[in-house]
Specification:
The protein is α+β, with helices and mostly antiparallel strands. It has helices spanning about 1-20, 25-30, 30-50, 55-80, 80-90, 100-105, 110-120, 165-170, 175-185; strands at about 90-95, 100, 130-135, 140-145, 155-160, 165, 195-200, 205-210, 215. Helix 1 runs antiparallel to helix 3 and helix 4 (about 55-80) packs across helix 5.
Length: about 220
């Protein structure tokens, strides 16, 4: 029992030192390769701690080897910019002044509901409130606000990639037929609509595939949700 405690303490101290040497970015804003390295280190640390038949030196050497690999990768990352793009990827601009870049969004394996969630995490609630939206290479979302727009109430997603969200439609106090007529008035077919949102005041955000977004107002006549 005492041997396991001692081995655990040694591994723990080694891990703390290695993580500190890797720097603050390793802890706070991991790139994909750093996440992989962290997972491997965690696995390597567990084996010698749990199995006393494995020499402790094997675990320590393996962890130090991963650390050296990490330092080499970071050096290449700093010295050779193409390597950085290959290893960590590049930021993706998913919102522009023209609206959502559907291609970029799908490149990140996301749909509009994921984007709306990211926007809320950045402190905004309407798609129209963001002039530029960027997914950084580490997965974080950055937003530049649209100074000409101000959120007034919480928008809900009515159409997501050509399909109604029945729960949100019911929340507005209207039905699908109402929103189909709204789309017809705007010259949009449901199958071509990438996103349609509305807030309780009837402020709508509409974007069709391959087109710029539109902002308009409809009369809902309901209570704020």
């Amino acid at each position: 029992m005492a041997l396991i405690v001692i081995r655990t303490v040694i591994i723990f101290v080694t891990l703390v030192l290695i993580m500190r040497l890797m720097g603050k970015r390793q802890i706070g804003e991991m790139q994909p390769f750093e996440l992989v390295i962290t997972l491997i280190i965690a696995d390597l640390a567990c084996i010698p701690m749990a199995d006393s038949t494995i020499p402790l030196l094997y675990g320590v050497v393996a962890i130090l080897s991963i650390f050296v690999l990490h330092q080499i990768i970071c050096l290449l990352d700093l010295k050779w910019k193409p390597f950085k793009a290959i290893l960590s990827g590049q930021p993706s601009i998913v919102i522009t002044p023209k609206g959502i870049d559907v291609y970029r969004l799908r490149q990140n394996n996301m749909d509009v509901s994921d984007l709306i969630e990211s926007i809320r995490g950045a402190g905004y609630f309407s798609l129209a409130a963001v002039k530029y939206g960027i997914y950084e290479s580490n997965g974080q979302f950055s937003a530049l606000p649209n100074e000409n727009f101000q959120d007034t109430s919480l928008p809900v997603l009515i159409v997501n990639n050509g399909q109604f969200d029945s729960k949100n439609v019911a929340l507005t106090g209207k039905d699908e037929a109402f929103f189909r007529s709204v789309l017809r008035e705007r010259g949009a077919a449901l199958k071509d609509v990438f996103v349609l949102t509305t807030d309780s005041e009837g402020n709508c955000y509409l974007q069709e595939n391959g087109k710029e977004y539109q902002i308009f107002r409809v009369e809902l006549g309901g209570q704020p949700w």
